[in-house]
Known about the structure:
- Chain B is an alpha/beta fold.
- The longest helix of chain B has 18 residues, at 35-52.
- In chain B, β1, α2 (35-52) and β2 (55-61) form a beta-alpha-beta unit.
- Chain B is 38% helix and 14% strand.
- In chain B, strands 1, 2, 3, 6, 10 and 11 form a six-stranded mixed beta sheet that branches. Chain B has a three-stranded antiparallel beta sheet with strand order 8-7-9.
- In chain C, a hairpin with a 2-residue loop joins β4 (54-62) and β5.
- Chain C is globular and about 50 Å long.
- Chain C has helices at residues 39-47, 92-99, 108-118, 134-147, 164-181, 192-198; strands spanning 2-11, 14-23, 28-32, 54-62, 65-66, 77-80, 152-156, 185-189, 202-204.
- By secondary structure, chain C is α/β, with parallel strands linked by helices.
Amino acid sequence: xGFTTVLSLARYLFYIILLVPVAVGxxxxxxxxVGFFPALEQHSLSSEPITRLLAYPGIAKxxxxxxxxxxxxxxxxxxxxxxxxxxxxQRKWLGLIQHGLSPVLAIPHAAAAIAVAFLLxxxxxxxxxxAAVTSTALPDTDSLMYDSFGLxxxxxxxxxxxxxxxxxxxxxxxxxxxxxxxEGQMRVAQSLGYCHQTSFLKIVFAQLYRQLRLxxxxxxxxxxxxxxxxxxxxxxxxxxxxxxxxxxxxxxDLSMRxxxxxxxxxxxxxTLAAVTVWLIGEKIWQWRFCQQLASGNxxxxxxxxKLLAGILLVCFTLATILLVLxxxxxxxxxxxxxxxxxxxxxxxxxxxxxxxxxxxxxSNTLIMGFVSTSIAVILVLLFLENEQQSDIKRASTSLADKxxxxxxxxxxxxxxxxxxxxxxxxxxxxxxxxVILAHLIYVIPYVFLSLAVAYRQLDVRYVHVASSLGKSPCxxxxxxxxxxxxxxxxxxxxxxxxxxxxxxxxxxLVSGGRLATxxxxxxxxxxxxxxRLTAVYALMQMLLPLLGFVLAWWLPTFLFNPAKRxxxxxxxxxxx
Amino acid sequence: MTLSKMCIIGLLCWAGLTGQVSATTVQFFGxxxxxxxxxxxxxxxxxxQARYDITVNHVKLADTSDAVTxxxxxxxxxxxxxxxxxxxxxxxxxxxxxxxxxxxxxDWAGQLPNFALTQPDKNPSMxxxxxxxxxxxEAPWGKAAMVFYYNQQQLxxxxxxxxxxxxxxxxxxxxxxxxxxxxxxxxxxxxxxALALNPTRQQLLYQPVTDHALTRITQPLFDYLDTLxxxxxxxxxxxxxxxxMLQQLFSDNEILLAFxxxxxxxxxxxxxxxxxxxxxxxxxSDGSLSNVHFVAIPFNSARANAxxxxxxxxxxxxxQAYKQRLDVWGDExxxxxxxxxxxxxxxxxxxxxxxxxxxxxxxxxxxxPHASWAPALxxxxxxxxxxxx
Amino acid sequence: MLVLxxxxxxxKSQILLQVNxxxxxxxxxxxxxxxxxxxxxxxxxxxxxLPETFRLSGKIILNQHNITNMPAHLRHTGLLYQxxxxxxxxxxxxNIVFAMPGKKHxxxxxxxxxxxxxxxxxxxxxRPVSTLSGGQASxxxxxxxxASEPAxxxxxxxxxxxxxATRHSTRQWVFEKIREAGLPALLVTHDEEDAAAxxxxxxxx
Lengths: 576, 389, 205
């Protein structure tokens, strides 16, 4: 099989995995939305589910809540990202922040929600600290959580999104070609009298945003339909639309499936609306920003950036410390009554019973993460290579970038339920294949997002030189491009694995619950009574992906890096 | 390594992972929120492996209705003989829904050798699930009744009736909660209140619901709840979705009174540090709602025979006695202990625990209302207090 | 010998430039002109790397073979840019070993060191490429290209990023090596000094 054949096969496979399951799943949900559901003896089309849904009390509020929380969270995360970058770009702190925030990226949404609940509950970490000051005996009866505007949802979503955006932005900024150019431009701007932050905002940010837009829209779309966070932290009268959909699908009264399916279609529209609002906001901002660019104001935004970046850092650090302390605390706690800051006694009981129960789920999680991520990375690399080889760059680039969004845009609640039917029908016996496929639907887009920028911006002259040295396209791919892109590939692997680790609905629904992973077990146990066991599970959920990221940072310093190796050997032999 | 080699290795890895699960693995679907139950099922699996070479894989559900959805989807997709669920922990409404949609295997439970040990002729609740005849579609597994618990250090005399509960709520606003009626314990609380508030009309609740009966029953119920709700945790604005959350709230003193359907989980949670040492369990004087929980086999299970063997083992004196141990699960047995041989009766002797329910504490057991009442009460509740999801 | 017969580069329907040239072994022909006329495109066309938006007409003949439509990696046309473009994941020796064709040299590493020593760069063999100075990198880059045993050399402003002192010596050194190797070379530059230093034919466009 020739290299070209492999590449074009990979291209087709890429599109098939991205689109077919989603399309089939959506059809599987749309049919009940128009009243067609043979399993419940409904064979004729009707608009009843839709009219019933629209007549449902509070449906507009649900949609509005989804829209509001997603947009606000994304805006906060975005402004935070820009502020941190503007303040710390080209400074030492940036590396520290990157390493500090990346673990948060790896935390599955469910674990993040559990953690925030640990922190904000009336008897949570924050309350205990304040109770220590005010010496209250009983926890407050008022709670920060479950507010009807979903502000806690916004907070949790923003905490999850910010590291993702920041990491994506840093990925773009660390491209050798981009880095050099932008650093030069930063120097020029500063020499023209613009202060550091303003230079970043007016020069770097403007160029960065174009590439950052896709990841931003992806998180926005995800946020508008996310289930775990609003389920654990959000209000219930009414909840966000996605939560309502999941609840309706789970109703014992099977006829609710119709309404749930109609709501799933509405969810797609809500997600589209969120994206549209963002794009309109972008246009307004652009217009405003162009005026600002010409204003000549050399300190524009600098105070705001300094302040915001500072506040963010302090809050994030404090919250993280409290969070980790309370999770670790609970995981080893004996009795721990309310106002006490530390448990009365410590025990390893919870870890023991968790590890005993988790050995199978952990190995399932690792296998699933490894296989799906490896397939995704190989497929994405081949796809990107095909794009460069066949010189169909422009058309294909925009097409791939748009299609990529389909699995991210079409809310999981909309197509996964439909997909379960297909699995029944096609893979009645297979267990791993359908689950890995379902994971791939989510892993591929993120892997693509994190690899595409690096791949497309690889200096093409390296390829030209190698090919003038007599190397075939296949050889260039394997021994020039892959090693040069080793670091971004490792990051993509870690990200892909983290995405795979965090999948709850796809794993549960597609495997029919027969494949237990750390995440499915954690969500199940979070519905149980033991906060201590929940803490252990949530910590496990954080540790596994973290391991992946540590490897991703560590490996590139040793592999394909003669400079580091030389340093290391020089250190060993100071005489040389 | 060339690319084609990489592809081949990839394919091999892929193929290696597609293997089917062993034919003697019974897929047991059941709520997975309780560590004790999960550990008990691991013990069960070891036992059945040793005895029948059958592995029991516990698929932990956050909600039993997920499994109902699953069987329904399988039926819709035409999977009639190779379903993914072999055994399902179920009762009440989920059973009624599955029975109505013909999703369960019939006439097998009565033929299990150990079923006779429950003395079904003397104990009609072995063949009735919330007023619906089981028709041999499910085998009894355990028994439960509603108990309340409180922290002795925070509360000296807990309320012992529904009327006292309201007084308690007035004295301690925000310190009591009950789950949404979607939750098993939530709807159970409503049923308990409905029974306790309608002492003269209780028989209405044991017949299929009618509009008239519903109005009569809910009138005193809603009067009561209207007064209670503003005094609840979060002023009744937010209800916990799952019963188990009550235990967490209680453990942190956010609420001072909680209740449960498994008396034994309270001393077990105290031993696991999940509840304070000063926790005490008691039964209400105006009655304790009680019911039986079952295991069922979906119509399309591929391993129905193995599932029956497991169900029979679950009913064996050994498995039932182990299950009843407070340090294991503490779930009350469905066997008629008095009729067992003396040696087996010995297996069921209980240990004492200061947080456990005292023997003979139940003053009055209230049977579950007819299964049609749960959806009716739930619907009426949501209509009155808003659609909470 | 590298022969360009009516080689013309078209963008849309407009001809950017047309070149006729015969470059003998050891000869360094200069293609000179202002930026943006398509000088580099001629080099790309010879190397087989012309983007598809451009159209090529005419014939390119290298050592009696018509290579006009041959895939780039089979043409044996060594390419040097203003940046050395050494692969940073390999050290200096690694870069040279990478360039060596097929399995011809049994001990490629040792042969690479020999090559480096021959040109007086023996000490650099183990160095990571990121530690080289501009002039050193240019030289290593040429050694790498020569190690691939090309049939012709294409130089695209190879000295424009060097400072004037290094530039002079590097240029001398590079031209010397090309003549020693007896390769036909085409140099694209807008610098009069570069052109003059070749002492060979100059094509102005």
